[in-house]
TrEMBL record, chain A:
GO-annotated cellular components: ATP-binding cassette (ABC) transporter complex; outer membrane-bounded periplasmic space
Record-linked SUPFAM superfamilies: Periplasmic binding protein-like II
Alphabetically ordered keywords of this record: Signal
UniProt-recorded name of the protein: Peptide/nickel transport system substrate-binding protein
Annotated source species: Sagittula marina
Residue ranges constituting the Solute-binding protein family domain according to the UniProt record: 91-461
From TrEMBL, chain B:
Annotated family: Belongs to the binding-protein-dependent transport system permease family.
Domain (ABC transmembrane type-1) ranges: 90-279
Subcellular location: Cell membrane
Source organism superkingdom: Bacteria
Protein name, per record: Peptide/nickel transport system permease protein
Organism annotation: Sagittula marina
Gene3D superfamilies noted in UniProt: MetI-like
Keyword Secreted: no
Transmembrane parts of this sequence: 28-50, 94-117, 129-148, 154-172, 203-236, 256-279
A single GO cellular-component term on record: plasma membrane
Annotated signal peptide: none
CDD domains the record matches: TM_PBP2
UniProtKB/TrEMBL annotation, chain C:
Name assigned to this protein: Peptide/nickel transport system permease protein
Domain ABC transmembrane type-1 span(s) in chain numbering: 96-302
This protein's record includes keyword Protein biosynthesis: no
Chief location of this protein within or outside the cell: membrane
Xref: InterPro entries: BPD_transp_1_N, MetI-like, MetI-like_sf
Transmembrane stretches, start-end: 12-30, 98-119, 131-156, 176-197, 237-263, 283-309
Organism name: Sagittula marina
Membrane topology summary: Multi-pass membrane protein
Annotated family: Belongs to the binding-protein-dependent transport system permease family.
Compartments (UniProt record): Cell membrane
One GO CC annotation: plasma membrane
GO biological process, one term: transmembrane transport
């Protein structure tokens, strides 16, 4: 086996030679191969060409075990592998593992406490070292290492007694049954023990700025503030890669991002995607494929249940009736956005399609309030028992479409005698204690409820998860319903998929009835790519558009 | 507001004074005065005269270009009348600019007078403090402050004032230091007049010229700064319109609705140019040394 | 001279301390903090956030944090970025070249055009050119830089398609020409204000020089106008020019910040805004200190140069 540097250099030289013979000059081997005949419907035998992915936030964190944002994920998925991966349909399939542990195949014990994972034996790190169960052990232990700034620890903190049975087999015990863990493992990228394990402090190891993984692409170079460039890993254990260079380009301005997509400088519009106002124009562009991809995120108005006015169910219902949701989606969001009644993504197999549909009905809203005893006061704002039907709504400053929707809703609320004051805050202030400790009155937020495809939402809706009361949890609306609590507890311990479906559908029905938040719309992203970029697949179960770059190729 | 500035420096029948004649002889200053007066009047009365409310949303009539239909300057992404918004925004921007100037001038004058009249140590400490503020690229500090504090118009005004008083302080300090050795000051001291009296009753009135010029230019600067900060999204927050935040969302629609970016920019440029013209005219009229450009 | 230098250094040091205390306090008083951006992450619990807060040492008293930071600064350790974990100095260093390129090219443009306009205005005093230049300079000082940039993008990128709307180069083509192509619009936009300042300054300097005896003598001797201007005027204006260049550093940085935002230029201004957005205080503080340092050093160098070149200027 060759040493690290040599491998890299030979590869580059080979690559360069190939480019020279193919195009005569490096610049010509741009992905501009549109006019080619259609015989190339299968991937090329050698990695060819370059794909530039445009992102509106800069990827800066290259150790995916550390706190990072969505745009960092594209790089992570390309450089690293997890034990499993999740398909767009929500199915979990093996990646570094050879099979998904289940009770049937003996990977999981009946009580869900004992795990046994078998690993591939043909995987190599980018530096040529072999991947083994030691790397998995190292990774799982690093996450719970108190000195390491780990990103997510949920689930991992239940893991005990990790044992390396052989280089291709690892076992551990869970402190308590936790069904969502398999989903968490699809985003737990395995780190090289022989590099990161040797680092003095894994928090600021040089590795974090020049990562070595097992993925389809190797670290190339980075121009801070502009781009990160990855190169093909010819020894990848899975299918692909078929492109030679994968570039993530940071373009903070959405207009410029779209302009560069139109002009062809960007091959694929990534995170933050094409803005809704450009959708109609983008659709009509030649040689571009523009699609609408529903995401797992729900935009909604959170009503803080601790606020007296929101404790009246009639008020919550009236507020829901008084939102002209259709206009918001069709006009403000240019038709980009799906109607939704629940937090569960419509693509999920746990989605409940039988929930009552929202309608925009000001008269209904008024009569609900009248019946509940809320009568207009001198200034036109309704009152009941000395309580004015007035509340503040907050969101982050600078989110234009949100601010527009907010002002629009403010106007229809005024029509039914409800005063909604707009008090927006800078993101860092908004998402600090103000949100975490439920200090807001009402908030307009987009929330992703699921991790991977697992339907567990204990952290969002269980009454023990109200941080303002119990000190931990993300039940920011301070929602509390004993029935939901017990269903959530049952769901997290149930490994039978059919039973879980029943549980989570019932939870959705109860929450739709209680309205701790008013659903506005399901996020739909406008994806855009050059025609001829094949193999691309949108996956709403991951946070990035670039999770399967290994399979991309130019036809 | 500019007329009152002139009033404070003028004798009765001020329009016959040498200063006034020189100011009105300055064609650019006159032009600036006319422009800003018209703009201010439009901002004060315009919203009452226009048939649209600056906050009224009409989604079906969004993005209509200027001079098409009933909207003279077109509509924004929520279908609000841009003319109405522009004038309402002008009230905010001009008020922020004006009050930031007042605050900055008071603060700057205070520090300048104390530094100029005080002893060596007081002077050194205060003026190093001034240098400290000056050595900061203002916008960095302004943004850091705006992010840290809740962005209300009052807060933005204060922040702009906090980053804009140093020029005034420098000018006043220099002026006071030179006046300090003049006969009337020495005479006052001999008469046993108190420090406070000397600083604020005797010396300060004699520095009014440079202060007025600096104040006028500070308004211009404050309006620009408000626009910068609001454009970057850290300033005045919607639904309250300001010229800066009208531009904030405009970049996104540059291709499809360029008037959203063009119109508020022209308003800002007009207002700032006016104050700069007036400041220039006053400088000539009041014989202020041309030292701070 | 030594005493002068010493006192200037001392002043600068005190300045830096003041600047750092203000910046540090303001940033850290802000509610929320760097971890609030993960509040909506479904997999991150408040317990995770509390743990990282502690690991970063953000739950300690402010003055302790400040002293530790300041002590590190003294030893050349500017801290570690919350966002990506690399040293602040490395993060800043990655963005400095882009900003220097932008500031440098825009200074060249500003000095070249500004000097020409200024001298021509002074030698053709009260001509139409002079009048237009005077008014133009004042209008240029009144135009918001970012707005000028937006209009530039609208006209030259969106409508005419001549110039790129952003970024420093095209991926895959890093030739000098490509850089220049991307550099044109941002550097001209950034230069606008400075053209105005330089032209006003040169006009004044030239007028001063023209009225002086030696110029009158030279003219009387039949030396050509061009030679008179070039030799005496520009020569005489050199000193104040150096000072002016120093004084303009903060305003250039401010302009660069706004320009970089509009043109998505990967420089320090962009970094500053991004870091503010992520509440990456160590980087924000680093940039505040770096810009203050740059300004102070530039002013210091200007002072010293002037003092060295012109013995008439009394030191201290």
């Amino acid at each position: 086996m060759k040493k690290t540097k040599e491998t890299g250099m030979t590869f580059t030289r080979r690559q360069t030679l190939r480019m020279m013979t193919a195009g005569g000059a490096i610049g010509i081997v741009a992905p501009n191969l549109l006019g080619k005949p259609a015989f190339a419907q299968t991937p090329p035998s050698e990695p060819t060409g370059r794909v530039v992915v445009g992102l509106s936030q800069e990827p800066t964190v290259f150790n995916p075990l550390m706190p990072h944002i969505e745009t960092d994920d594209g790089v992570a998925f390309s450089i690293f592998d997890a034990l499993f991966r999740i398909t767009p349909e929500g199915e979990i399939v093996p990646n570094l593992a050879t099979e998904v542990p289940t009770i049937e195949n003996g990977g999981l014990s009946e009580d869900g406490l004992q795990w046994r994972v078998k690993l591939r034996d043909d995987v190599k790190w980018h530096d040529g070292e072999a991947f083994t169960a030691e790397d998995v052990k190292f990774t799982l232990e690093l996450i719970t290492n108190p000195d390491f700034r780990a990103w997510r620890t949920t689930g991992h903190d239940l893991v005990r007694d990790i044992e390396v049975v052989s280089p291709t087999e690892i076992t551990w015990r869970m402190e308590e049954p936790f069904a969502p863990y398999i989903s968490f493992l699809t985003e737990t990228f395995i780190m090289p023990e022989h590099i990161l394990g040797q680092a003095e402090d894994p928090n600021d190891a040089p590795f974090n700025q020049a990562p070595v993984g097992t993925g389809a692409f190797k670290w190339g170079s980075r121009q801070a503030g502009d781009n990160v460039s990855l190169v093909a890993n010819p020894d990848y254990h899975g299918d692909g890669p078929y492109i030679e260079q994968l570039v993530f380009k940071y373009i903070p301005d959405m207009t410029v991002l779209y302009t560069q997509f139109r002009s062809g400088e960007v091959d694929l519009v990534g995170q933050a995607y094409i803005t809704a106002d450009n959708y109609a124009e983008a659709k009509a562009l030649e040689d571009r494929v523009v699609t609408l991809e529903p995401r797992g995120t729900l935009e909604s108005i959170y009503l803080n249940q601790a606020l007296p006015v929101f404790q009246d169910k009639a008020v919550r219902e009236a507020l829901y009736y008084a939102i002209d949701r259709k206009s918001i989606i069709d006009i403000l969001y240019f038709g980009v956005g799906g109607e939704a009644e629940t937090f569960m993504p419509s693509t999920s197999s746990y989605f409940n399609p039988d929930l009552p549909e929202h309608s925009f009905d000001l008269e209904k809203a008024k009569s609900l309030l009248d019946e509940a005893g809320w009568v207009p006061g001198a200034d036109g704002i309704r009152e009941k028992d000395g309580l004015r039907l007035s509340f503040a709504n907050s969101t982050t400053t600078g989110a234009h479409l949100r601010e527009q929707a907010q002002q629009f809703i403010q106007q229809t609320y005024a029509d039914i005698g409800v005063e909604m004051r707009i008090e927006n805050l800078p993101p860092a202030v908004m998402w600090g204690e103000f949100w975490g400790q439920s200090q807001f009155e009402s908030a307009m937020v987009g929330i992703t409820y699921l991790i991977g495809a697992d339907p567990d939402v204990t952290n969002r809706f269980h009454s023990d998860a109200i941080a303002a009361k119990s000190g931990s949890g993300s039940n920011n609306a301070q929602y509390s319903n004993p029935k939901v609590d017990s269903l959530l507890e049952e769901g997290a311990k149930t490994f039978d998929t059919e039973r879980r479906k029943e549980i989570y559908k019932e939870i959705q029905a109860i929450i739709r009835e209680d309205l701790p938040f008013l659903p506005l719309f399901r996020y739909v992203n406008v994806f855009g790519r050059k025609a001829g970029l094949e193999g691309f697949e949108a996956n709403s179960n991951v946070r990035t558009e670039s999770s399967n770059a290994a399979l991309w190729y130019w036809s | 507001m500019t007329t009152t500035d002139i009033n404070t420096t003028a004798v009765p029948r001020w329009w016959q004074s040498r200063v006034a004649r020189r100011f009105f002889g300055h064609r650019l200053a006159l032009l600036g005065l006319v422009m800003i007066t018209l703009l201010t009047l439009a901002c004060i009365f315009g919203p009452y005269l226009l048939p649209y409310d600056s906050l009224h949303i009409d989604l079906r009539g969004r993005f209509s270009p200027p001079m098409s239909g009933q909207h003279y300057l077109g509509t924004d992404p929520l279908g609000r009348d841009i003319a109405a918004r522009l004038l309402t925004a002008g009230r905010i921007s001009l008020l922020v600019g004006f009050f930031a100037m007042v605050l900055a001038t008071i603060l700057g004058t205070l520090i300048g007078v104390i530094a100029g009249y005080g002893g060596r140590v007081v002077n050194a400490v205060l003026m190093r403090f001034v240098d400290g503020f000056l050595s900061f690229p203002t916008i960095f500090m302004l943004l850091a402050l705006a992010v840290a504090l809740k962005p209300s118009p009052v807060m933005i005004t204060i922040i702009i004032a906090l980053t804009g008083w140093m020029e005034v302080a420098r000018i006043v300090e220099a002026e006071v230091r030179s006046l300090k050795e003049r006969e009337f000051v020495l005479a006052g001291r001999m008469l046993g007049l108190g420090k406070m009296h000397m600083m604020f009753r005797e010396i300060l009135p004699n520095c009014m010229g440079p202060i007025i010029v600096a104040a006028t230019l500070t308004v211009a600067r404050a309006i620009l700064l408000e626009a910068y900060v609001s454009f970057l999204g850290f300033g005045i927050q919607p639904p309250l319109p300001s010229w800066g935040n009208m531009l904030n969302g405009a970049q996104q629609y540059l291709g499809s609705a360029p008037w959203l970016a063009i119109i508020p920019g022209i308003a800002i440029t007009l207002a700032v140019t006016s104050f700069n013209f007036i400041g220039d005219g006053l400088r000539d009229a009041l014989d202020v040394r041309n030292d701070s450009f | 001279m030594a005493a002068f230098l010493f006192s200037r250094f001392l002043q600068s040091a005190v300045l830096l301390v003041i600047v750092s205390i203000i910046g540090f306090t303001v940033l850290n008083l802000m509610p929320g903090g760097p971890l609030s951006q993960f509040a909506l992450d479904p997999g991150m619990t408040p317990a995770d956030i509390a743990r990282i807060t502690e690991q970063l040492g953000l739950n300690r008293p402010l003055h302790i944090q400040y002293l530790e930071w300041a002590w590190g600064m003294l030893q050349g350790d500017w801290g570690t970025s919350f966002r990506d974990g690399s040293p602040v100095t490395a993060v800043i260093a990655r963005h400095v070249p882009a900003t220097l390129l932008l500031m440098g090219s825009s200074t060249v443009i500003a000095v070249a055009i500004g000097t020409w306009i200024g001298i021509r205005g002074a030698t053709h005093r009260y001509s139409g050119f002079d009048y237009v230049a005077t008014v133009g300079a004042m209008v240029a000082l009144s135009i918001p830089t970012f707005w000028f940039g937006l209009i530039g993008i609208y006209v030259f990128s969106l409508k005419l398609g001549w110039l790129p709307a952003g970024n420093m180069y095209t991926i895959g083509d890093q030739s000098v020409l490509n850089y220049l192509h991307h550099l044109i619009m941002p550097s001209v936009v950034l230069a606008l204000v400075h053209i105005a300042i330089w032209s006003r300054f040169m006009r004044g300097a030239t007028l001063d020089a023209i009225s002086q005896d030696f110029v009158k003598t030279a003219r009387a001797k039949g030396v050509t106008e061009r030679r008179v201007v070039m030799k005496h005027v520009v020569g005489n204006a050199m000193l104040p020019m150096i000072t002016l260049a120093g004084v303009q550093i903060p305003s250039l940085l401010t302009g660069a910040l706004v320009t970089e935002t509009v043109f998505t230029w990967p420089g320090m201004g962009r970094l500053f805004l991004d870091s503010l957005g992520y509440s990456d205080y160590p980087v924000v503080m680093g940039l505040l200190m770096f810009s203050a340092l740059l300004t102070i050093v530039a002013n210091l160098i200007a002072d010293i140069t002037v003092a060295l070149v012109d013995p008439r200027i009394r030191l201290a």
